[in-house]
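Annotated sample (chain length 160).
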Amino acid sequence: MNQDVYIGLGSNLESPISQIKQAVNAISKLPQTKLISSSSLYQSEPMGPQDQNQYINAVVKISTSLSPLPLLDELQAIEKQQGRVRKFERWGPRTLDLDLILYAEQTIQCERLTVPHYGMKERAFVILPLLEIEPDIQLPDGSLAAEIKNTLSLVGIHKL
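Output written by the structure step:
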């Protein structure tokens, strides 16, 4: 059975706009998956260390029959194909970051995956593009993304 899934995309290395566009194309070709919509690109300040380039971010909505962990494997394969090297540095620069932010109405907590994404409620670079493609979206805990947006600082983020 197909599920609606939202994926956050981010890049700040090696032509970030191109990285995001390539990733959206790769996601659209995943098995048992259909790309439903893609947000505009947003430029945002980096989280964590500030001595790195600004990020380009987006959110896509897919419909997929892949279960969460096989989907995560596919997303990590795309990251690797596009030059992502996983380091122990949290919030450091990267060619591509693909985060499974929402998987249908599910709440998932396991060693490899937390859904909804643990930090999405604090990240304007996730909430703004998510609202662009799904203005009335409600999270599994009942909160509305539109209300979450009102609690966030929008300084340093803008739509391209």
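Annotation: The chain is about 25% helix and 25% strand.
Annotation: The chain has a mean pLDDT of 93.
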